[in-house]
Amino acid sequence: MLDPMSKTAPFLLLAWAVFLLGCDRANPLPRDGSAERPLVVLLVPAESGRTNLLDDYRPLMSAVTRVYKIHFDMRMASSYATVVEGMKAGQVDIAHFGAVSYRMARDAQAAELLGVAVENGQAVYYAGIFARQDSGINSINDLRGRTLATGDPNSTSSFNYPVAMLIDAGIDPARDLRIVLAGSHSASLTALEAGQVDAAAASINAYEKMLREGSLDGSQLKEIARSEPIPNPPLAMWTGLEPQLKTTLRNAFGSIHTQPGVNPEMILGYGGKVADRYDTSINDGFIEPALTRLATVTDELKADIVRAASAPRPPSP
Q: Which structural domains are found in the chain, ordered by start?
């Protein structure tokens, strides 16, 4: 079985070796959340517009530190695979995952759920496919023979759900159109706005965030397809943490919204959206519907898409 990330594996391994070396030197003792040994928080590179997940989650983490005295060392990963490998190596204590990347870490017995943002009483978001207003593209069926920018192959909403939607429409993602691996939600949408591709896949959260901050001109774009509700991207913990620390973390994240001096604007979730609270009672059943839905997006199909995306393009007539 070909790993879609095989071409970048040597670079990922080198980057990860440097990361591990830095962690070992800085924290020779087990990390416990103290100021001297903060918990390492690694976030997938799901940036959107001018800001990224560090900006989204920093207010939440800062509030937990202030109220519960649990300290964090927050970092942004270079890829989704890096976050998974970090959990597997025991060098990451808390991570932001999508359903797909969480499954990878969970199946390696490296991650368990910590909590998920609840917004307006719901813990769901959506994947979308967008086109330019002047493109003549009005539905997924119009994408045959066109170019579609996507995010990382391990991204739930900027790759896996859009690919599943293509399959549902009877489109072969590796052969009936050309997928351009832009690498992130914002890069996909930016390429579309610039006219470099015919369509783009991204989460609705990322799209709306870029509109709010003015880094995307929504008047030029339109949504041509939207997924069914997807479980919100969860925060997960390394399975090797001490049981008491896991309990403390769940209590802290589950009750931070009730604490004096904690404003609603501090309780942010994916895409910088204000959340009601974090639900820390969730279990793997929360993620399973999304994983079942994505069963058609196999590793073999991802490898075919990556090969097709990297193949030389024929010269323009």
A: 33-123+232-280 (3.40.190.10), 124-230+294-310 (3.40.190.10)
- Alpha carbons within 13 A on the beta-carbon side of 124: 11
Write the pLDDT tens digit of every residue in 60-87: 999 999 999 999 999 988 888 999 999 9
Q: Which positions of the chain have pLDDT values less than 70?
A: 1-28, 46-51, 313-317
Per-residue H/E/C for 124-188 = EECEEEEEECCCCCCCHHHHCCCEEEEECCCCHHHHHHHHHHHHHCCCCCCCCCEEEEEECHHHH
Token match 């416990």: residue?
Answer: 32
Tokens for 217, please give them.
């001109």
User: Pairing state of beta strands 39-43 and 72-76?
Assistant: parallel
Exposure letters 53-72 (e unless 16+ CB within 10 A, then b):
beebbebbbebbbebbebbb
